[in-house]
Amino acid sequence: MAINNRNRNVVALQNNRTTLIPNGNGFSGLEQRMILSTATTNEAIIKKGRGGFYGISLANTSTRGVAYIRIFDTVNTPQSSDTPIATYAINIGGVNNFILPIPLSITNNLGINITAGPQIGNRSAVEADKIIGSVWFK
Predict the structure, then answer these.
(1) Comparing C-alpha atoms, which of 37, 33, 30 is closest to residue 7?
(2) Under a CB-based contact definition with an 8 Å cutoff, are residues 12 and 2 in contact?
(3) Which residues touch 89 (CB under 8 Å, ≥6 apart)?
(4) Are 123 and 29 in contact (CB under 8 A)?
(5) Closest Cα to residue 138, out of 61, 55, 22, 29?
């Protein structure tokens, strides 16, 4: 699978690996932040200020089950009770790639949390060092 827009990056997914391939304009300012879970709900601001969320590439090496990453457009560090703008399941084994052809617009700050349950308000911590990968944003 590849996404190619004239003024955006090409994202190639091959052999369960994700590769960002620069277009004619380089990487057009796309940033990447590494994610490595701690034994908490991993509430964090990934980027301060306006921008866009382009996708994630995360692996779940836990034996406890599916984990969930929530994406927030928030003023403060996201809380589990806040309503996310998107939620993605991170299945066990392999790499889970969610690449958006059109980014989600972020007006305030880009925030995330990672929990062991899908419900809003879930405070079930994931295991430390079991969710690893990247978040792409601008």
Answers:
(1) 30
(2) yes
(3) 66, 67, 68, 96, 118
(4) no
(5) 29
Taking the C-alpha atoms of residue 124 and residue 135, their distance in angstroms, rounded to an integer, is 21
DSSP code string of 4-64: E-TTS-EEEEETTEEEEE-BTTBTTT-EEEEEE--SS---EEEEESSEEEEEEEEEE--SS
Q: CA 97, CA 77: separation in Å to the nearest integer?
A: 24
- What is the H or E stretch that residue 132 is in? strand 131-137
Is residue 92's pLDDT more than 50? yes
pLDDT one-digit tens code per residue, 44-53: 999 999 999 9
d(CA 10, CA 21): 5
